[in-house]
Amino acid sequence: MTSRFGLVLLVAVAPMVLAGCTDSYNSGPLRYEEAEALTKEPADKTKANLAGKTKLQELVRKGLTRLYGPNPREIHVPPGTNLPGGGIRLANFKRTGEGADAKRERIMVQASPAPGEPAVTEAQKGGYALYRLHCLHCHGVSGAGNGPTADFLYPRPRDYRPGKYKFTSTPNGAKPTREDLRRTISDGLHGTSMPAFEALMTPAEVDQVVDYVMFLSYRGETELALIEEATVSDENDPEALNDEVVNGVANAVFEKWTSVEAEVFNPPVPRTPATKESILRGRNLFLGYKSKNMNSVDCIGCHGIKANGDGASLVSQDVFNDVYFSGNPSTRLERLEKYPEKTRELWKNSLDDWGDPIRAANLRVGVYKGGRRPIDLYWRIAKGITGAKMPAHYPTLEADEVWDLVNFVLALPYDKTLLEGVTLPNPAAPAVAER
Ligand code: HEC
Ligand code: HEC
Q1: Owning domain of residue 373
Q2: CATH no. for residue 300?
Q3: What's the CA-to-centroid distance between 157 and ligand 1, angstroms?
Q4: Domain presence at residue 321
């Protein structure tokens, strides 16, 4: 079972899921889509160059298939991923033996019994089947965030392939912990189309689907890293992208995930009680007044002086609505063309790391994507929001000052006068003052 290829799992969609379903996702063959760079023709189209590039592209495909399996129904789990049980929770069937001796075996799990009932063993649904049922239509077969529903949504579903996640308890840019993913999936992301799955899945099933999200991220990050590796490889080198190189690339991806559990960002001091004084200190920091150590932060540049998300650092709501929503999604860039260069520049600076335009949160409404517990907001403000431009503010601010900001943010929806008739530390400062 754990041959040199690691674990080989076979996925059969549970008959219940198949029965009666007529959508094309259940009829056609399921394939991973490839990263754009892998399907793009190189700029230099001389025959020799094309042949060389094609050869390297083939090597990338071969490496990916060896590590992760040829399609979503045949999952290979490479060694070193640190997925519990070597990845056994990803699927509902396991393949044992090789060649003519190969057998499929159902994966059974112990279901948690109702109080007083004897334990029962049941067939595991597996991360892939659950993902396919609940997540695929938004997040896509390869986790590229491009399922059939995605084009109708703002914000768009996450593309897992670059391995970047916004709502984590870890430093800016670091991977999420399992607990972060579990929380996102169980609670959903409020104010977006990402649903809460707490009522649809048992905790054990959420864990299975967490494994599958991680699997898709591992696969996607390995794909991007192999493409990167191919760009610096010589197609005539017989060692180019050989098994050892490919394993090395994959292991570097796994390491970032396995080391992160130790990096949870715990506040060094407990929360300051939400007194009027603390809230007002937070308000002043929000407005750009200096901190104890003489730093200042630029919340209003993005969130606006009324905190409704219309700061001058990002395009205005009107431009955003016009370009993004007022016509066919495929002609957005054409709609942008009519604006002056300054606005077009601002648009470019208003894109997140996945290439989509962002809006800063409206902090007057009390809806927080990443959760409304004080610790959630502490994490957002202290370490920023990966991929979405919101920067880390610790250690620029001290931990107790971050708590003051948390207290202010939590108070504002209930007391909007907090931002009425305020003066800015530097009223001559940029356009934000007028907003
Ligand atoms: C109706 C569409 C939809 C469905 C169904 C859906 N998601 Fe999402 N998901 C989203 C959107 C939209 C976002 C991004 C929100 C944002 O960036 O503000 C997201 C983001 C995420 C994130 C990233 C969180 C972060 O910290 O960056 C994870 C993980 C995730 N979804 C997992 C899942 C899983 C697992 C399922 C199925 C059990 C699922 N989603 C089903 C729409 C969906
Ligand atoms: C460079 C721009 C920028 C700056 C500066 C900035 N933010 Fe943000 N902030 C954002 C964006 C963009 C989002 C929305 C991200 C998203 O929806 O994915 C956001 C979201 C938030 C959220 C909501 C988190 C959630 O779970 O939905 C809070 C709270 C917040 N910011 C507070 C602050 C505070 C306080 C400051 C100053 C200390 C600040 N921000 C500075 C851009 C910024």
Answers
A1: 276-314+350-434
A2: 1.10.760.10
A3: 5
A4: no
- Per-residue DSSP letters for 206-244? HHHHHHHHHHHHHHHHHHHHHHHHHHTS-TT-TTTT-HH
| pLDDT value for 82 | 87
> Which atom of ligand 2 is nearest the CA belonging to 371?
26
Mean pLDDT by 10 residues, the chain (435 residues): 58 33 48 87 80 90 94 90 92 85 87 81 94 96 95 95 98 97 98 97 96 97 96 90 95 95 94 98 97 95 96 94 91 94 95 95 97 98 97 97 98 97 74 41
Quick one: DSSP state of residue 71? B
Closest protein CA for atom 18 of ligand 1: 155
Give me ligand 2 centre to Cα 168, in Å: 14
Q: Is residue 341 part of a domain?
A: no
- Domains: count for the chain: 2
Q: Is the CB of 209 under 6 A from ligand 1?
A: yes
CA of 135 to the centre of ligand 2 (A): 26
The number of C-alpha atoms within 13 Å of 207 and in the hemisphere containing its C-beta is 10
Whole-number Å distance between alpha carbons of 5 and 215: 15
Q: Are residues 209 and 303 in the same domain?
A: no
pTM: 0.92
Same domain for 290 and 255: no
Cβ(34)–Cβ(113) below 8 Å: no
